[in-house]
Design goal:
The structure is a single chain. The protein is of the alpha+beta class. The chain folds into 3 domains: about 10-50 and about 185-275, no CATH class; about 70-180; about 290-500, Pseudouridine synthase, CATH 3.30.2350. Helix content is about 35%, strand content about 20%. It has helices spanning about 55-80, 80-115, 120-185, 195-205, 220-230, 265-275, 320-330, 355-365, 445-450, 495-500, and strands at about 10-20, 20-30, 185-190, 195, 235-245, 260, 290-295, 300-305, 345-350, 370-375, 395-400, 400-405, 410-415, 420-425, 430-435, 475-480, 490-495. The strands form 4 sheets. Strands 7, 8, 9, 10, 11, 14, 15, 16 and 17 form a 9-stranded mixed sheet that branches. It has a 4-stranded antiparallel sheet with strand order 2-1-5-6, with helices on one face. A hairpin with a 3-residue loop joins strand 7 and strand 8. Helix 1 runs antiparallel to helix 3, helix 2 (about 80-115) runs antiparallel to helix 3 (about 120-185) and helix 4 (about 195-205) packs across helix 6. About 25% of the residues are buried.
């Protein structure tokens, strides 16, 4: 199997089915491809094929594309227009003229003030007229420049208004087309019932009754496979999805690795489609791990949590570091938890026992003056370390991050809306590395290690961005901060077991 030449990679799915007492399987790929996939006949068809050149969708899509072309043309004209470039130039010229006139007025006033004690009545009258002239001329100069700048600004504003109007038309047309498209996806479930994607999302979450399906909903492997099985009286038995090919630019996907259904598009859709089907649910999540007290005084406590323990209470109601310490220190004031670690990450946490300590420590974290060192064990290389030419012993990764809205809690690299994320690293051994986060974004260290533009080495045991193992081999080994009461710098260290082994 080879990926389509126009695609970096694609998600594929397989559904094992029973049909008339015979076991078999169906296969599908996510999305639709203009012109079809090279092995189109081997895969189930889309739930709704909207790619017909003469169909409703493509016709309206071409209308939107024509708006895009017109917007781009107008934007180019505006960027090349002498009117737009003239505004800052004219504004600077205006300021220079006004500054020169104000200087001349000040000089003339100084001369009048020097002559005033010895001036006769006629001279004083002349000086008054001179002062009035300078003030009137100053107003005239301002009015002349305001007229010039106003005309230029008006022309630019009219041009920009045309662009904004077209953008609004494009947004409305796109929203209407998406709404129409989702109404065409009539999804079946295991009870033989049918409902559109629009209705499915509208009723999925009672807290968000007007939830709109994300773009691409209904085109993933899972709904395609189930829809085909239902339409042909097949009984779904088992289903799995895997990635084939190169990873997308912003996300992290590994060739031939299995992935669960995405939360944004597939979770609501599958919640409807699997009704009437006996589903084997995963065992409930259990909180694991231990909590060690490293340091304690009247103001704070430093603890070391093991992998598998939540830092703060989660949606499953499992015990957390916050719960344990709140029961251990009932007299503590304030929120206590100054920062947190991912559930799968082990290591040091500093916790405030008073409101004053909490505020003081929070300010340090906000100002990025708290120094943290993590130790991570990375997935082994396919080739020996000696085969990698000139790998630097240390360096910095800068990749902006934001939440993947369609597949939380995953994060992704996004240079447009992502927030700055910086990690300094230092290699200790071929697979062992120290990580120093200079910012504190969600999953920052995990993505900076796994992404192709970062270290291209997932942390061992990372189920989101690498491959699952007995644990996530990421540990917060050291933390340095200023004590909120004494003002002294304090450093605490707890190295992980895998650090001692690999070092």
């Amino acid at each position: 199997m080879a990926a389509h030449p126009d695609e970096r990679g694609k998600m594929f799915g397989v559904l094992v089915v029973e049909w008339r007492g015979v076991l078999g399987y169906l296969q599908a790929y996510s999305g639709q491809i203009e012109g079809g996939y090279p092995y189109q006949d081997a895969f189930v068809p889309p739930v709704y094929d909207y790619l017909s050149p003469t169909g409703y969708f493509k016709c309206h899509e071409r209308a939107i594309s024509s708006l895009n072309v017109r917007i781009a043309e107008l934007q180019q004209l505006l960027s090349q227009s002498h009117w737009q470039h003239a505004v800052p130039i004219l504004d600077r010229q205006r300021q220079r003229v006004l500054d020169a006139w104000r200087l001349r007025m000040a000089q003339a006033k100084a001369q009048r003030d020097a002559r005033r004690p010895c001036a006769d009545t006629q001279t004083l009258s002349e000086m008054t007229r001179e002062s009035q002239f300078f003030k009137a001329e100053s107003r005239r100069i301002r009015r002349r420049w305001d007229l010039v700048l106003g005309e230029v600004t008006r022309r630019v504003a009219l041009h920009q208004q045309k662009i904004d109007t077209l953008k609004q038309r494009r947004r409305q047309a796109s929203d209407q087309l998406q709404t129409w498209l989702f109404s065409q996806f009539m999804m079946r479930n295991g009870r033989g019932e049918t409902r559109s994607l629009t209705d499915i999302f509208a009723h999925h979450d009672p807290l968000r009754p007007y939830l709109t399906p994300p773009a691409g909903t209904g085109e993933c492997c899972e709904p395609k496979l189930l829809q085909y099985a239902y339409l042909h009286d097949m009984i779904p038995l088992n289903m799995a999805m895997f990635w084939w090919g190169e990873s997308p630019a912003g996300e992290i996907r590994h060739h031939l690795q299995y992935y669960p259904a995405c939360q944004g598009k597939c979770a609501p859709t599958l919640a409807w489609m699997l009704q009437g089907v006996e589903v084997e649910h995963a065992a409930p999540v259990q909180s694991t791990g231990q909590l060690e007290t490293v340091y304690e005084d009247a103001h704070l406590v430093v603890v070391c949590k093991s992998a598998g323990m939540l830092s703060v209470p989660g949606r499953h109601g499992l015990p957390s570091v916050a719960d344990i310490l709140r029961s251990r220190y009932p007299e503590a004031t304030g929120p206590m938890m100054v920062h947190r670690l991912d559930r799968d990450t082990s290591g040091l946490l500093v916790v405030a026992k008073t409101q004053e300590a909490y505020v003081h420590l929070q300010r340090q974290f906000a100002a990025h003056t708290v120094c943290k060192r993590y130790v991570a064990l990375l997935e082994p290389l396919a080739v020996s370390d000696a085969d990698i030419p000139n790998r630097p012993s240390e360096g910095t990764v800068c990749l902006p991050l934001c939440a993947d809205a369609d597949d939380r809690p995953r994060q992704k690299v996004d240079y447009e809306v992502g927030k700055e994320a910086i990690t300094r690293y230092e290699w200790l051994a071929p697979d062992l590395i120290c990580l120093y986060p200079l910012t504190g974004r969600t999953h920052q260290l995990r993505i900076h290690c796994a992404h192709a533009l970062g270290l291209a080495r997932p942390i061992l045991g990372d189920p989101l961005y690498g491959h699952a193992a007995d644990r996530l081999y990421l540990h917060a080994a050291s933390i340095t901060f200023v004590h909120p009461a004494t003002g002294s710098s304090m450093t605490f260290t707890r190295e992980p077991d895998f650090f001692k082994v690999k070092k």
